[in-house]
Fold:
Amino acid sequence: MSTDPTFRMTVADVFEISGLGTVAAGVIDLGTIKVYDQVWIHGNEGPVKTGVVSIQAGTKGVKTATAGQTVGLVLRGVKVDRVQVGNVVSASES
Structure:
């Protein structure tokens, strides 16, 4: 699956779920995201590439989410202290 090049979400909350990993939550600003898409986390330490393991929208797991939806993105291989409120998750490295 390929990431929508316009995808962007500002992180409003970050937490860890035991057994799943780090969750970056927020409202999708632009574009569409799918499970297994590759994304970049942009923060103070520079961009970090990761993948979306699952997407939670409310109490449901979904395969796709679009602009305007409030979601939690479970991120592969990212420690919870690497993501901060205000970081941006996007489809591009820059």
Summary: The chain has one domain: 8-90. The chain has a mean pLDDT of 93.
